[in-house]
Design brief:
This protein has about 110 residues and is mainly alpha-helical. It contains five helices and no strands.
C-alpha cells in the first residue's frame, strides 16, 4: 500500500532530521526536551506496533480469525493508530525545526 510507504518515509525523515538538529544543539551544550507531540508520537508508534503484531497473531488462530469482521475492523483500528502516530510525527518534527531553526542557518 502506497500510503504505508508514505507513512514510513515521513517517520524516518522526521527521526533523522530531529536527531541531526539535536546533535547540533548538543554540540553547543543545549539540551532539547521532548514536546508533548513527540511523546505522543512515541507512545502511538509503540501502541501501533504492538497492536498490529498482536492482531497478526490473533488472526493466525483459526478460532479467533473466524470472528466476523475481526480482520477488517481490527485492521482499520491499526491503521488509525498508525496515522495518529504519523500526524504526531509531522507535528513534532515541525515543532523541533521551528524551535531550533537557528541551527539550520548556522550550518
Amino acid at each position: 500500500d502506497a500510503s504505508m510507504a508514505w507513512a514510513l518515509m515521513l517517520i524516518l525523515t522526521r527521526e533523522f532530521m530531529v536527531t541531526s538538529v539535536r546533535l547540533l544543539a548538543a554540540k553547543d551544550g543545549v539540551g532539547v526536551a521532548a514536546s508533548f507531540a513527540g511523546k505522543l508520537k512515541t507512545v502511538m508508534q509503540m501502541v501501533s506496533i504492538i497492536y498490529m503484531l498482536t492482531l497478526l497473531q490473533v488472526l493466525d488462530m483459526p478460532f479467533l480469525a473466524a470472528i466476523p469482521g475481526l480482520a477488517k475492523w481490527g485492521g482499520y483500528f491499526g491503521m488509525l493508530c498508525i496515522w495518529i502516530s504519523v500526524i504526531a510525527t509531522v507535528v513534532s518534527g515541525i515543532q523541533y525545526v521551528w524551535e531550533l531553526r537557528h541551527y539550520f542557518k548556522e550550518s
